[in-house]
Write a structure and sequence with these properties.
Blueprint (H helix, E strand, L loop, with lengths): L2 H25 L2 H16 L8 H29 L21 H7 L3 H11 L5 H8 L3 H19 L3 H23 L1
Helix pairs in contact: 1-2, 1-3, 1-5, 2-3, 4-7, 5-7, 6-7
Length: about 190
């Protein structure tokens, strides 16, 4: 068996549940999460990468999950702009309906646009810094800050005040008060 196959088998055997959980946080749909993980595994192992360990491969797969999700969203948006040209005038009603998520957080995340959602998940689930998120998603630092600010604002509307946001405000307040005290002394 090839080296990459051993690495992939080890990754799937040991980290499949974590990857599925991560993908679910990114997309909010358990079926789509499975598809995202499969697509990310294919993207990661489609070409040979020398010295690829299971730990490094997990990083590649996680990045591929967010990339595939954003790409699918873009494709869907493009399709929505032209689909009226291809569909019949009468559409059959959706008999299955929407499946509701059981978690308030999952419901709140589902309301966020894809890039905002990806930034929020990377920041608070993967604990990445703004520059790391920017590199991973190919965005400017300012864009990531804006997406995080927008996302937290929307999440607070849905969930109420967030503890991390309160701690960040308290830190900024204490820093601002220290700066103003230094200005009063001089």
């Amino acid at each position: 068996m090839a080296d990459w196959q051993d690495t992939m088998e080890q990754l799937v055997r040991n980290r499949e549940r974590a990857l599925l959980s991560y993908a679910y946080l990114v997309c909010g749909d358990p079926v789509q999460a499975q598809d995202l993980v499969q697509d990310a595994l294919v993207r990661t192992f489609a070409r040979e990468r020398k010295g690829l360990t299971a730990v490094k491969a997990e990083g590649y797969v996680r990045r591929a999950i967010t990339t595939v999700y954003v790409d699918q969203y873009r494709r869907k948006q493009r399709w929505q702009r032209v689909q009226h040209l291809f569909r019949p005038d009468v559409l059959a009603p959706d008999r299955l309906g929407q499946v509701e998520a059981s978690s308030e957080v999952a419901d709140a995340l589902a309301t966020l646009p894809p890039r905002v959602r990806a930034c929020v998940v990377l920041r608070f689930f993967d604990d990445l810094t703004v520059p790391q998120i920017a590199r991973q998603l190919g965005l400017a630092d300012g864009s990531v800050k804006r997406y995080l600010s927008d996302g937290l604002g929307q999440l607070e509307l849905a969930l109420g005040p967030l503890e991390d946001a309160q701690m960040a405000d308290a830190e900024h307040t204490s820093v601002d008060s220290r700066h103003s005290q230094k200005g009063n002394r001089s």
